[in-house]
Predict the structure.
Amino acid sequence: MSARLRERRSLLAVWSSRLSLLSMPILVIVAIGHRSGLMGATQAYAVMALGFALAGFGVLAALGALEGIWRDGRKGLGAALRGLLIGLAVLVVPLAGAWKLVTYPQLIDISTDVEDPPAFVLAPADRPADARPVSAPTDEEIELQREAYPDIVSRHYPVGTARVFEDTKTIVEGRNWRVLGMQPPTEEEEAGWIEAVAATPIFGFRQDVAIRILPDGEGALVDMRSAARNGSHDLGANAERIRAFFRDLDASLQGISEE
């Protein structure tokens, strides 16, 4: 009797649950390992691929198990549904990335001033060995950015550079970006700049950020550059980071007149 019961239990259902569940600690290890610096970006990408592949196999096994359960009444419905739901939940991240991969242009370095982007002075020395080198955008990349992100442009504020710098510093610190260096405007030098390192929300992949504040007539001109350290596609993250920064700066300086 027990042998017949084991024969009628869906092994695919059991494996779907195991595979999907196994993918979760693997991805947690990637997130902790990369954020803490114990795992390089290249290693993180490889282990992430393993984790997402296990979730994908778990979903496929669940679908096969459900077909067998429907056809001949095998046991294991709960395990199959668990494997399916957990696997699909894990796959939300790569599926969203795949959608962005075909939606956004293949760029990793975005700037509000494509002709004269804010310089990365400190970032090259802070980048690990497996990071991409900092380079100026090509003519093709400039055109791609202009077509895809026409709203990513320099911003003028009718406020002195010192006030803009202080609000910019507050925003950078509030976002917990790791500051590499900064130069506030002075009486001798009215320009200011900040270099920092941002990180993606889940796995902590680093992007370098440079913000430049220049005197501009009756106010200040602000430019921002955001560039991924690894990979060949930023999935739109750099443009969104720049938009979010300027939304905060707009709100911070709203209604403020130049002193």
Summary: The chain has two domains: 2-103, 109-253. The chain has eight helices and six strands. The first helix runs from residue 2 to 8.
